Amino acid sequence: MAVSSCSFPPRVFNAYSSFECRSDPDFSGTPTGEKPRIGSNRRVTASLFCAGGGGLSSLIFRFPPNFVRQLSVKARRNCSNIGVAQVVAASWSNGPTSGYPSSAAAAASQAAAASVPVSDDVAVVEGCIDNDSVQIGDSYDSKTSFLSSDGSITVHAGERLGRGIVTDAITTPVVNTSAYFFKKTQELIDFKEKRHTSFEYGRYGNPTTVVAEEKISALEGAESTLIMASGMCASTVMLMALVPAGGHIVTTTDCYRKTRIFIETILPKMGISATVIDPADVDGLESALNKNKVSLFFTESPTNPFLRCVDIEKVSKLCHSKGTLVCIDGTFATLLIRRPWLLVLAGCISGSEKLVTEIRTLHHILGGTLNPNAAYLIIRGMKTLHLRVQQQNSTALRMAEVLEAHPRVKRVYYPGLPSHPEHEIAKRQMTGFGGVVSFEVDGDLMTTIKFVDALKIPYIAPSFGGCESIVDQPAIMSYWDLSQAERSKYGILDNLIRFSFGVEDFEDLKADILQALETIA
Questions:
Q1: How far apart are CA 249 and CA 243, in angstroms?
Q2: Residue 178: exposure state from Cβ atoms within 10 A (0-12, 13-18, ≥19)
Q3: Which end of the chain is more exposed for a tag (fewer CB within 10 A), N or C?
Q4: Helix, strand or coil, per DSSP, at residue 322
Q5: What is the pLDDT of residue 87?
């Protein structure tokens, strides 16, 4: 995607078509004419909702500010199921500390979290085209600071404060094109020499997709966002872009299986080797850093499917002291759970312009471009994200407590429970615990199948995060090609269940799960 940094104050571009290049939305109240900044009271977050304590406010899962975020979001709906994958490349800074209340309702909870440094400057990156009569920035009021909560940002960011597509329609239009033309050869030459802006070709960008990217950037507090066709596309391109040939990475035992397959079978073809450690093994990480020139530490937090939690601040400081990049796949704990993408398979990377540009360059070669119609669905879905997430997280936490107390359940994996091995870490760096609960029933493979088949509400399907609840038996859904002994090496037992809670009524889901457990009593 051809991009440009839109200047301040707004100025006129002599260019073609009904698009206008504009300033990136700034939610800190920066006066017009100044370079946008992340306000000192704004904390870069990946957010989450849960029913903790006194209600269902927008409680936020925080990644520390100045993490250079490489966000990979994977979403698919089949029988209304959505999955989400996030990859976060973290780069710790040493500036002054400050806090960011990501929503007014969660201010008290967020004030309790540890403060970390915040970057002052945000690079404004935008693919844009404009015509002679349009001034850049006309549709954007940089003095606007009324969007104080993530819920409001999901509705308006990238749109209400101005967008590249000039239209008075409330809904962002879908621009279906694979190529963009130039009026004269001189305009093409100007584009090649960076005096004129254009997407040029569909693989390099799309006005509708840019709106979705802007919305995600606003929520992330990121300089730039790149959307791709799938979460695995985003994570694999990121790994290939950031890890040099012959490099070494460190990863963890519990993780999404396709990520593990890529690390174990594809990266070695590029001479890239890996050390595998337990998610909580900080000593093992330090040993690997001392023995190898490690380019990247790649893990999930919480992990899939056992929801293990990594002490992000600790591992980031340790890795960056050795010059190692930290990448977190945040599938189970992302910005507002990040599950708005109904009917969409997509992935995105958000972060510093430097890193995103490096990844974007490889993406332009490899492809994996998101269809603008899918981008539109992402935009639409994000507008009700905060409402749906509240219900999902409330139900997950309450059901985890119910399941842990049930005699037919052997073990529950949920970071919101005191019994979880990283519960204290989760409390410290999260203010919500996600909408997915994994648990083991008391029985063998067939007993577990009987329980799953007795459920009436959830769909049996892969992925998670939809309005409808989803259930799967990992031994069958994800690991059926392996023998029982091979599955057990990864901790995948025949009685393990992963349940993604939707937005159905809690009492209905509770009754359904309890009746299904009665069938195996």
A1: 8
A2: exposed
A3: C
A4: coil
A5: 35
Distance between CA 407 and CA 429 in Å, rounded? 31
pLDDT digits (tens, 9 = 90+) for 51-70: 333 333 223 333 333 333 33
- State the Cα–Cα distance between residues 163 and 156, nearest whole angstrom: 10
As a whole number of angstroms, the distance between CA 504 and CA 498 comes to 17
Structure tokens at 260: 């593990």
Residues paired with 89 in a beta bridge: 327
Is the pLDDT at 102 greater than 90? The verdict is: no
The encoded tokens of residue 16 equal 């073609």
Task: Return the number of other C-beta atoms located less than 10 Å from residue 485's C-beta.
Answer: 7
Burial of 182 (0-12, 13-18, 19+ CB in 10 A): middle
* DSSP of 173-228: PP---SB---SSHHHHHHHHTTSS----BGGG--HHHHHHHHHHHHHHT-SEEEEE
Which residue from 181, 66, 65 is spatially nearest to 113, judged by alpha carbons?
65
**CB neighbours of residue 382 within 10 Å:** 23
Residue 262 DSSP label = I
The pTM assigned to this predicted structure is 0.69
Report d(CA 400, CA 418) in Å as an integer. Answer: 11
